[in-house]
Structure formats: C-alpha cells, structure tokens
C-alpha cells in the first residue's frame, strides 16, 4: 500500500521531542522546547509544530523556514536589523543566512515547514 498523499499536522497521540538552545547560544532564561514532527523527508523537508517556554537565545539559519504562530508572543531580532514582535496569527519566512536572536515573552507555539 502506498503512503497517503494527505497528511494532517496534528499533535494528537504524538510524543514530542524535548530540547533547549545550545548552552553557547543561550542569552537569558531557561527556554524549553517541544517539537512534534509530522513530516521528515530524506530530501531535507520537515514540517510540524514547535513550542518554547520563555527565554532568549541566538539563532543562525542555514535552512529556509516558514513559520505560522499559533499562540504566544516572541521577539525576533535580526543582527544589524530590526526586532519584530510576532504573535498568534502571524506568518513569516526566515531565509538561509538569517542571524540574530529569538526571545519568547509568552510560551510560543508555531507551525513550521523547513527546507534544508
């Protein structure tokens, strides 16, 4: 039987992966991550839901990522650029080469699609 071509992105019954920023990237707080991967392809495509508790860390993107914020409030600041506050309902793309910081002010949950 071939795999289904329609995939619902849901966390129901899925055990999350737990994580945190690398110690050398942590700026403040104790952010804890939970990630529910709905799609993982050998081609470097990933999709799912990610959540973080409050804190701030440095980010460096080698990949392309589409994000849609489901809940919470974060401030994403680009190195040498402006800081942007994102909240539930906001969508954006972080392109390869993006450097800066991600600060979660209120526990944040997002849907994501990543292409390496």
Q: What would your notes on this structure say?
A:
- The chain is an all-beta fold.
- The protein has a single domain, classed as Sandwich (Jelly Rolls).
- The protein is built from no helices and 9 strands.
- A hairpin with a 4-residue loop joins strand 3 and strand 4.
- The chain starts with 16 loop residues before the first strand and ends with a strand.
- The mean pLDDT is 96.
- This is Cupin domain-containing protein.
- InterPro entries: RmlC-like_jellyroll, RmlC_Cupin_sf, UGlyAH_Cupin_dom.
Q: Structural class, from secondary structure content?
A: mainly beta
Element-level helix/strand string: EEEEEEEEE
Q: Helix fraction? A: under 10%
Question: What is the count of helical runs?
Answer: 0
- Largest sheet report: 9 strands, antiparallel
Q: Would you identify the CATH architecture?
A: Sandwich
**CATH class label:** Mainly Beta
User: What's the multimeric state?
Assistant: single chain
The CATH superfamily is identified as Jelly Rolls
Task: Give the count of structural domains.
Answer: 1
Radius of gyration: 14 Å
- What general form does the structure show? globular
**Mean residue pLDDT:** 96
- Predict the CATH topology: Jelly Rolls
Percent strand: over 45%
Number of strands: 9
What's the N-to-C terminus distance?
29 Å
* Unreliable stretches covering 5 or more consecutive residues: none
